[in-house]
Amino acid sequence: MQYDLHLRQIEKEARAEGEKIGEKRGIAKAFSETAKKLLKLGLSLDKISEATTLSIEELKSLSVQMT
């Protein structure tokens, strides 16, 4: 009985951690997609970085991937 409770707690914690990781990945993907659109519109890297929190290096990499 105690073992089952412990396993359920571990499962709950693992699920919460997985959700947190998934949420972070989703946010990162959204920022990346937004940055791509802003790059296509010709906004400066500084402005895109400010809006998306992506670094200038990350934006340069995205820009290269888009070509």
Brief overview:
The protein has 67 residues and is mostly helical. It is 88% helix and 0% strand.
- Overall number of domains: 1
Number of helices: 3
Strand tally: 0
Globally, the shape reads rod-shaped
Structural class: mainly alpha
Secondary-structure element order, as H and E?
A: HHH
Distance between the termini: 59 Å
Helix content: over 70%
Query: Main β-sheet, in a few words?
Result: none
Gyration radius from CA atoms, angstroms? 19 Å
- pLDDT below 50 for ≥5 consecutive residues: which ranges? none
In percent terms, what proportion of residues is strand?
under 5%
Mean pLDDT: 94
Ordered list of secondary-structure elements with their pairings:
Layout: H1 2-41, H2 45-52, H3 56-66
Helix pairs in contact: 1-2, 1-3
Explain what this protein looks like in three dimensions.
This protein is mostly helical and 67 residues long. The chain has one domain (2-66). The chain is built from 3 helices and no strands. It has helices at 2-41, 45-52, 56-66. Helix 1 runs antiparallel to helix 2 (45-52). The longest helix has 40 residues, at 2-41. It is rod-shaped, with a radius of gyration of 19 Å.
